[in-house]
Amino acid sequence: MKLSPSQERVKLFIPKHSGSSAFWWVLQRLSGFFVFVFVFLHMVINHYLTLLMETEDIPELANGIASFQAVQWKMQNPLYFWVSILFVVFLIIHMLNGFRMVVLDVATGHSFRKIFGILLILVGILIVLYAFVLNSTVLSLG
Amino acid sequence: MAEKEVIVDQAQATTGSKLSNLLSWFNPFSRGVGMWAWIAQRLTGLFLVMYVFIHLGIIGTMLLDDFLGFNTGQLYNSITSAMSSPLIEVTGLPSIFEHVFSFAFFIDAALLAALVYHGYNGIRVVLFDLGIGIRKQKTVFWILLILGIISYFLAIWLILSVPAIVLSSGA
User: Fold this and answer.
1) Which residue(s) pair with B86 in the sheet?
2) Partner A contacted by B13 (CB < 8 A)
3) Cβ–Cβ < 8 Å for A135, A75
């Protein structure tokens, strides 16, 4: 079957094998890119904020930028709230899929692959729920 | 059978004895740059997985105050404050090095090293997957490593130069 030019371009990003392994390969690359972006944002907002703005007049930051009061103050902003959840989502996808790849380098049993994959998906969902509960609780205490 | 033995003898003659093959496994120079980059990518990945779980556990202490009878945020502030306290007292250092001997700085320095390596090597892997730079893979590795080292020291310098990065001792 002859592919169109746009299909040929897309094909460049997909490894030779197809099916579910190609899906996980693409997902690992995409989530890696988003983790890269979110790690940068995370570092700037949580560690280098004082370089970007005057923070002396903000009472919530009096105990330092990593204190509980500072986290509450940042969590008031819906953008911070949802960006941190999105960060966890992409991080967990990249992390657990990477862990799966490392384990499957040595474990090749078909049923093991299947059970291990399902287990990791469940762990991922639990961690994202945990992050949501954590953010919501910190916000509700503010 | 005899033919098979001859083939085995020839193979051992060209690749060395079993003992030398075993010893070469422990020789760091017996593997190329690409293999070491792959091993380091796996190891830094596993380190980062462990770090994320520990990090999530520590920030999860924000949820425990009510259960344990502390004031809101008290437990979390105590843990982060303890982590940012100096492990040893060193006097006479410039103020920029005030936090260097804290547990938090050691963790941050190790985290950044793993993060920078994993990130830059990840870019290298994606480039190779797309067929870019495979023939010059060693050069690509060294260029990205140098960029990574520059990024690492820039980030460390930023950590040391931001006074409010960690909790003040009075938290």
Assistant:
1) B102
2) no
3) yes
CATH code of the domain containing A55: 1.20.1300
The verdict on residue A136 lying in a domain is yes
- Chain B closest-CA separation from residue A66 CA (Å): 6
In a domain, A11, yes or no: no
Query: Does A115 fall in a domain?
Result: yes
List the single residue in A13, A48, A99 with the smallest CB-CB distance to B158.
Answer: A48
Residue among B119, B158, B170 minimizing CB distance to A36: B119
Rounded to the nearest angstrom, the minimum Cα separation between A110 and chain B is 22
User: Helix (H, G, I), strand (E, B), or coil: what is residue A96?
Assistant: helix
Burial class (CB in 10 A: 0-12, 13-18, 19+), A131: buried
Q: CA-nearest residue of chain B to A69?
A: B73
Which domains does chain B carry?
32-55+89-166 (1.20.1300.10)
- Give just the sign of the alpha carbon dihedral A8, A9, A12, A16: negative
Q: Please, which residues have CB within 8 angstroms of residue B130's CB and are 6 or more apart in sequence?
A: A12, A13
Minimal CA–CA distance to B45: which of B123, B118, B106, B126?
B118
Listed in sequence order, the residues at least 6 apart from A129 whose beta carbon sits closer than 8 Å to its beta carbon are: none
Per the structure, the complete domain to which residue A66 belongs is given by 22-140
Q: Which residues make Cβ contacts (< 8 Å) with residue A97, sequence separation at least 6?
A: A24, A27, A28, A31, A120
Q: What is the pLDDT along chain B (171 residues), one digit of tens a residue?
A: 556 555 555 555 555 677 777 777 667 667 778 888 989 999 999 999 999 999 888 888 877 877 777 777 788 888 888 887 777 777 777 766 777 778 888 888 999 999 999 999 999 988 888 888 888 888 999 999 999 999 999 988 887 876 544 444 443
ipTM of the complex model? 0.77
Cβ atoms of A62 and B138 closer than 8 Å: no
